[in-house]
Specification:
Layout (H helix, E strand, L loop, with lengths): L5 E6 L5 H6 L8 H24 L3 H27 L2 E7 L5 E7 L12 H27 L3 H26 L2 H28 L1
Parallel strand pairs: 1-3
Antiparallel strand pairs: 2-3
Helix pairs in contact: 2-3, 2-4, 3-5, 4-5
Length: 204
């Protein structure tokens, strides 16, 4: 990323807190969005695994996989993230040519309750994290098995799905400084717990 990029946090403009409060946390309120959140990315993986069995045309397989990955990138970035977890991110360039990364987060309701369904949140993050990891495994497999022609397709999967993963993690935890602070605090807490446990064992 360009060091001159600005980071801006804004509120999601179209959040409907009243409807969210009335809904059950375990209920899937957006079944179509939940379906397509997994459909495109899982379909791309299935086509990659089975394409050599279904057809001998590498071009047809490559185009199909890239189309599925592109549809997945657009749907997750613009639709399913906003509906399922209340997050959205994008990059915009101002009149001066400076790049701005904008991260949206749905406002918390007046009672302080969560506005996202827990079931939808699990589906969203499970699909968002698992699929890029699978494409990374495919990348190493293609590299070590010398399948050079498939390497470009696999790299495309890693880049597109990894970009969404990175963007939504930034939406969730904030800026890079906050992410570093969280990691530092976590390590500090783990070290403190280990030290206290050691002292307790020595005292006993």
């Amino acid at each position: 990323q360009d060091s001159s990029d600005d980071i801006e946090d804004v509120s999601l403009f179209d959040a409907d807190d009243d409807v969210s409060r009335r809904s059950k946390k375990s209920k899937i309120r957006h079944p179509v969005a939940s379906f397509f959140h997994l459909f495109f990315r899982v379909s791309a993986i299935v086509v990659y695994l089975l394409c050599e069995l279904l057809t001998s045309s590498f071009i047809a397989c490559m185009v199909t996989i890239i189309l599925l990955l592109s549809c997945d990138f657009w749907a997750v970035k613009n639709v399913t993230g906003r509906l399922m977890v209340g997050l959205r991110w994008w990059n915009q360039v101002d009149d001066d040519g400076r790049s701005h990364w904008v991260f949206e987060a749905r406002k918390v309701s007046a009672q302080g309750g969560k506005t996202s369904s827990e079931a939808e949140s699990r589906i969203f993050w499970l699909g968002l994290i698992t699929c890029p990891m699978i494409w990374v495994i495919f990348a190493f497999s293609a590299l070590f098995s010398f399948k050079v022609k498939w390497l470009a397709v696999v790299v495309m999967g890693v880049v597109l799905q990894g970009a969404n993963l990175y963007g939504y993690i930034r939406c969730k935890v904030g800026s890079r400084k906050n992410l570093t602070s969280m990691a530092t605090n976590y390590l500090g807490k783990q070290f403190l717990r280990q030290t206290m446990a050691t002292e307790d064992q020595a005292a006993s």
